[in-house]
Design brief:
Strand order of the largest sheet: 7-8-6-9-10-11
CATH architecture of the largest domain: 3-Layer(aba) Sandwich
Radius of gyration: 29 Å
Number of helices: 15
CATH class of the largest domain: Alpha Beta
Strand content: 15-25%
Bound molecules: guanosine-5'-diphosphate, zinc ion
């Protein structure tokens, strides 16, 4: 598909598209038109094509838009593109279509950012949450809160000039009540937004275990592809390998490690070092034990080190004779799953436990409706701080002009989240994250 947007779009189409009866696309009504694409200068035929004609303002960018849908193939798309350039178009910058949509008031900033997330979305759930944002639920909440805030602020500002004390205390009571309501709502927005990020960026998952217990094999099984190296020599996974696995719609960002253990081997040590680092940032842990061997001191240490983290303990190689014992007392409330990667048994149960435990009390399907990035989180946190100060000041009976300043700052912060107070630098920063053609 080749998309042209702007006031010249119709005339450009007329120069490169031959419709039945030599009609002009720019004079047609909105809709799909069948025609032949021609070279604007030599007039030779390029391809048949379906042209989507969407005069502004009812288009993605709110400008006149033509989309040429051609048969696949890079060669052909390129010749259509160069025909369009010859006919007077210029190449779009990355994200320019979305930027124009924003500048023309079609979408707000958080919706524009959601388009970026949509492009990057890694799993179904994550793309669903990006879609929700595109639809503007998040912006709607922010806008509603801004309205509440501006009404509250108006009340406070009006009251500042009143000398009577009881009028002032009514205003304070309202600041406390409304402020607390807003705080609850924003904090939930932040929580959901962060969960949305987890859904998009994945749950940092570390696979731990002594060499040769089957960590790499497990990673491969979870990814259903042969990415990590599997060998019979202990300690061959020298580096940390990281991949995304979509398990039950939840993205797990899985790290395979060299195993945490004491070693004199320098190369091995590098891997071990990274394992420790990985464990520090882990959001979920899979401890792999070899059920064919008695529980070793190292195993026990691993179980102790990972206590308290969301985790599943895997007893691998369950196709072999069972020699492991004493895991249960060290497992706490973690799930213990018997697995045989060789026989292909237990993987489903493991995946089930992973989803259950990684998301326990955390991610729900609803959480996918909001997703915030670092910029938005920082701003929202700033709004929380402002509101908390306002509420505290009101409770302490501070003068109203101090409260008004906090409310104003909260209002501005919320505006920045959806780009209503965004500066040019910020806009460029955001839109340069787009890929071409969006
Ligand atoms: P790592 O060092 O922990 O990454 O272990 P690997 O995944 O490299 O596996 C070590 C060896 O154990 C390989 O020869 C695997 O084929 C073997 N292995 C992995 N899972 C099983 C299993 O469930 N049963 C048996 N019998 N062997 C397994
Ligand atoms: Zn390995």
């Amino acid at each position: 598909m080749v998309r042209v947007s702007g006031p010249e779009a119709g005339r450009i189409a007329d120069r490169m598209l031959k419709l039945k009866g030599n009609a002009h696309l720019s004079e047609q009504k909105r809709g799909m038109w069948y025609g032949t694409l021609i070279h604007p200068e030599t007039k030779s035929d390029l391809d048949e094509c379906v042209a989507l004609w969407m005069p502004g303002p009812h288009s993605y960018t709110a400008e006149d838009v033509v989309e040429f849908q051609v048969h696949g193939g890079l060669q052909l798309v390129q010749s259509v593109l160069s025909a369009a350039l010859m006919a007077g178009a210029r190449l779009a910058e990355p994200g320019e279509f979305t930027k124009r949509a924003f500048l023309n008031g079609r979408i707000d900033l958080s919706q524009a950012e959601a388009v970026i997330d949509l492009i990057r979305a890694k799993t179904e759930l994550a793309s669903r949450s990006a879609l929700q944002l595109v639809k503007g639920d998040f912006s709607e909440s922010i806008r509603r809160m801004r309205q509440t805030l501006i009404r509250l602020q108006a009340h406070v500002e009006v009251t500042i000039d009143y000398p009577e004390h009881d009028v002032e205390s009514v205003a304070c009571a309202r600041v406390i009540e409304t402020g607390q309501e807003l705080l609850t709502e924003i904090q939930e927005l932040i929580r959901r937004g962060k969960m949305g990020r987890v859904l998009r960026e994945g749950i940092r998952t570390v696979i731990l275990g002594r060499p040769n217990v089957g960590k790499s094999s497990l990673m491969n099984a979870l990814l259903r592809q042969d990415r990590a190296i599997v060998t019979d020599i202990p300690g061959t996974t020298r580096d940390v390998i990281e991949e995304y696995a979509n398990i039950g719609g939840i993205p797990f960002r899985i790290l395979d490690t060299a195993g945490i253990r004491d070693t004199e081997d320098i190369v091995e040590k590098l891997g071990v070092e990274r394992s420790r680092e990985a464990l520090r940032e882990a959001e979920f842990v899979i401890v792999v034990l070899n059920s064919n061997e008695p529980l070793s001191l190292e195993d026990e240490e691993l179980l102790l080190q990972t206590e308290g983290l969301p985790r599943v303990i895997v007893l691998n190689k369950s196709d072999l004779e069972r020699r492991i014992d004493g895991v249960e007392p060290l497992a706490g409330d973690s799930a213990v799953v018997e697995l045989s990667l060789k026989a292909g048994r237990g993987l489903e149960e493991l995946e089930h436990e992973m989803v259950l435990r990684a998301t326990a009390g955390g991610v729900q399907m609803d959480d996918a409706s909001y997703m915030t990035n670092a910029r938005q989180n920082t701003l929202l946190q700033g709004v929380v701080d402002d509101l908390e100060l306002a509420v505290e000041a009101a409770a302490a009976g501070a003068t109203l002009d101090i409260i008004a300043v906090q409310l104003q700052s909260a209002y501005a912060g919320l505006g920045q989240v959806i780009g209503e107070e965004a500066g040019e630098d910020l806009l460029n920063e955001i839109f340069s994250n787009f890929c071409l053609g969006k």
